[in-house]
Fold:
Amino acid sequence: MRIAVLAVQGAFVEHEKVLHSMGIDTLELRKKKDLCNSFDGLILPGGESTVQGKLLKELDMFDELRERIENGLPVLGTCAGLILLAESISNDDHTHFGTLPVKVKRNAYGRQLGSFFAQEELKGLGRVPMKFIRAPYIEDVSEGVEILSRVGGNIVAVRYKNQIGLSFHPELCKDTRIHQLFVDI
Amino acid sequence: MEQRRYELNKELAQMLKGGVIMDVTNPQQAKIAEKAGACAVMALERIPADIRAAGGVSRMSDPKMIKGIQEAVSIPVMAKCRIGHFAEAQILEAIEIDYIDESEVLSPADDVYHIDKTKFKVPFVCGAKDLGEALRRINEGASMIRTKGEPGTGDIVQAVRHMRMMNRQISRIVSMREDELFNEAKELQVPYELVLYVHEKGRLPVVNFAAGGVATPADAALMMQLGAEGVFVGSGIFKSGDPEKRANAIVKAVTNYNDYKMLAELSEDLGEAMVGINEQEIELLMAERGK
Structure:
């Protein structure tokens, strides 16, 4: 199995390290040519969604990746990755892939002083460590979207068919259960 | 500072990796930078090239001007305080800045002590020209390091020198016997634990960016190939002929720093680069501030 990690900007190396520790091969996506290699799943890492969304388009990977996600390619979006997947963003006119029918709020906890750590239940996994860094949360979900976790009343993890969206960063914790959940799709 | 907060602060820097942090002096420039793909902006009243030209004492920017930039963009906003000026840092923390740069670009406020950054909740980035400086700043609580380079010159030579120096010192420590690490800690004037970390992991315990003198996409690619995890561009953008185009090109050069064909395309037709001052013409070496 090989998992592609979007590597245009952000914390992509951290995801690769987790996958390597699980014995899974990875592939970095930096430009269109990289899409010629085969892969079985896609991770959209943390970073700045404005930068990643722009580079996806300008480096000509956007259309093909969106099509593949719509056709069932398993995808895990963390933090900025969740924003890339969201169908609508309450405090931004720009959307990106728009394949995940949820409404997210960017920088929902405010600036860096609002960043925090929590340990909360995630459906099917029990309590998992969660790091929120200038994180978004999900304000609303459409029918068919399964809510996996809430923190302080806000939705922070969802699954919809082949897509998992998280407000937080599982790649920064030693816990590999969420990555396992993803590769099991 | 509690350990968990420090971890989150180091991790915010991890999220900035592979990105370009741009100096901006007003909301308009901040918007141009964000649109061009900056992963964060550094809000300051005068860019380093103008600080050099103006001379005199340069200080923290007006909080009102910083707040205007915070309102204009959704990406993280950083701002500079003077070396050792903890009151300026307190003010920046009070306006909820995302990162404070305790910077040699401004006039130092203290020629002995740096800020005790462990007393703050907001993260700090500091400049370093060698491993000793980097580890001393980390010991004081910095959660991100950048090369000092020589700001406002458009001359990359110093940033290259600082990055190579750091890499060389790290490789040396990695190849040392464990019983030599104690003396190395003494030589570098840093705690043994930090030297041990470098010995075991072969890297700094925090993210390391390049800064000071980056003016072209090729400069950015050079620094990334030398091991920088991202790039600060100060005067290089808004002192050039076509800031928007140059900013765009530098962002893409940082992502695809190993794709020479793409770098060639990105380097085309960017208009005039900042004029720059070469190493021999520099009258004020900012990198010598704060060791």
Remarks:
- Strands of chain B lie at 20-24, 40-43, 77-82, 99-103, 124-128, 144-147, 207-209, 231-233.
- The two ends of chain B are 23 Å apart (CA to CA).
- The first strand of chain B starts at residue 20 and ends at 24.
